[in-house]
Known about the structure:
The protein is an all-alpha fold. It has helices at about 50-70, 80-105, 110-130, 130-135.
Amino acid sequence: MELKPLPLHHNIPAPPPYVVAHDHRHGPFAFYWGKEAQFLFSGWPDNHSGMYALALVFVFFLAMFVEFLTNLNLVKPGSNRAATVSFQAGFVAVRAGFSYMVMLSVMSYNGGVFIAAILGHAVGYVIFGSKISKSRSP
Length: 138
């Protein structure tokens, strides 16, 4: 049975046929392994093993820093409400900016970067957010 196109109304042209194309200019669409990555900054880490390792450490500590900021409470009880809300809004904006940097790093689709981000969040949670770390504090 052959499907016939619907008639066009009001002289509107038909849309072009849907074509699935893989455009390599915009990067890979699946995780890959290796030091051939570029993320956060143009030309970085630039296919050098040492710079790639430094980039992984950077993403790891950036994810840990996001967990630190997530669990940081700087507002003291009894503070001015308007000042507290303004400060918290600014603080959330800063935390979101760092979170988006981790997300953009992971969007390089490099497996090492993905693992570094996940481990950084996990270690950061254990150090700054878990009940274990909170029971040690006086």
